[in-house]
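Fold sample X.
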Amino acid sequence: MRHDALIVGGSFAGLSAAMQLARARRKVCVVDTGAPRNRFAAASHGFFGQDGVPPLKMIADAREKLLAYPSVEFVEAAVVDAGAEEAGGFTVSLSNGERRSAGKLLLAYGVQDGLPEISGIGERWGSSVLHCPYCHGYEFSERQLGVLYHHGAQPPDHALLIAEWGPTTLFLHGGEGPDAEARAKLQARGVIIEPGRIAGLEGEGQELTGARIGDGRLVPIEALYVAPRTRPASPLAERLGCAFDDGPLGKVLRVDAMKMTTVPGVYGAGDLAMMFSNATMASADGLMAGVSMHRSMVFDA
């Protein structure tokens, strides 16, 4: 089955790209596994006109609106392989056994978060263990907050930022920690520096009441900010020969200003292709990719 464009990933970036192509009356196929990165969060905040709406509802509503366009098809599956065709375009193999072909590919399958190996952190991810203060900070205003320090991935200045929302403890987790100048800035702002390793997080259910230090002390906190290492949610870009750059938190798919990767006809958008991201930026990135793909269909034909 031949499409003008096949989009791998049906979350904020992929659906935004598909909408632009659908409105340009192009045949679009969106392939998605149904496991968006922000599925662990009960609500998405800061998104224009959608503040407080659950991410899965936002995606479901966007998908419903997209499928109102007759040129759009949605397939619940994973893309397990893809390759270029001699005559131009690409053929992809799906986990349901189907094969599809398209003139253009968009890789918008996002990334997976590699959380630190600390007891109690995984089950609280997206609830009281957080990544973005602009997404979730307001809900924890003036509460006891924690920041897990990652040397090289998260600067100590991040704790200064988190302190905007409430009293903050920077957990070095047994690491060396920031230098003397950074420590002075943190202490001047009232940030407490805790050098001990965190043995585990405590609290009922997904709530957080404190971080248990290895020596037995419990440091009271109600939210912990972490900067998890990320990895692509699929090896598809590597199989296609796309180049990556090293970002502060993991590999980032290399794209140009028009969202094309280093492989002609293959585009990238969303968390996979951005150094820093949230739902709003992923949606905007997808919009740009969709427009760029359509313009290429018109002007590069």
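Fold sample Y, listed below.
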Amino acid sequence: MPVLVASDLDRTLIYSAAALALTMPDARAPRLLCVEVHERAPLSFMTETAAGLLTDLGDAAVFVPTTTRTRKQYLRINLPGPTPKYAITANGGHLLVDGVSDPDWHAGVTARLAEQCAPLEEVREYLENTADPLWLRKHRIAEDLFAYLVVERELLPEEWVKELAAWAENRGWTVSLQGRKIYAVPKPLTKSAAVREVARRTGAELTLAAGDSLLDADLLLAADRGWRPGHGELADAEWAAPGITALPERGVLAGERILREFLRATCGK
């Protein structure tokens, strides 16, 4: 039976320049491979070693990129190795099969959201009415499923984030702060549900997962084994659960370590 490997991407396997966390002397820094270009500028990276590990993993397991990115944002990433047949985007809102969203899956997701949580429009209005232009840089709606803000992190009041989280909790939504982005996501919109569907379709009996943010917690809990890096929301909260390994590595080297762990669990390498 195949092994299914479902991994978050940003700040788990791939890293922006600001998130690389290269603490070693320049001469000892790892060689980097650019895996995403946006508006003709390099945007995301992994180490060349990690690229080789991901290629090996794609040959040995069913590798499923599992991200909160929109479809458009995901499709501009050029990962090394075999092109994944399945990918999960919009935090589980879209299940891509050979790059195309499965319409039945998406219809089922939107029906659950309509039944189980407050509408997106209510959340959008709250964000627009309470976010301060002093620290707000962008306000975005993603795939008509959830909302996120781009902020000046150093100016962002911690109390505002707590108030938003409490307000959202009462309406069936979750708030996640990742770098310069604040996500407001419906609770029924989960990566884990989509991963279970891929496991059903592929017949996988072992599921491995990795992620760094609050939005990855359900993914990790749904897996047989999981890993989180030494940075991110989960690390900051010292989040732990049975079967989940907290790694000490931070930044781009954490991505390399996660891929080593995936390969070791998949085929003993």
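Sample Y note: The radius of gyration is 18 Å.
Also: The first strand starts at residue 3 and ends at 7.
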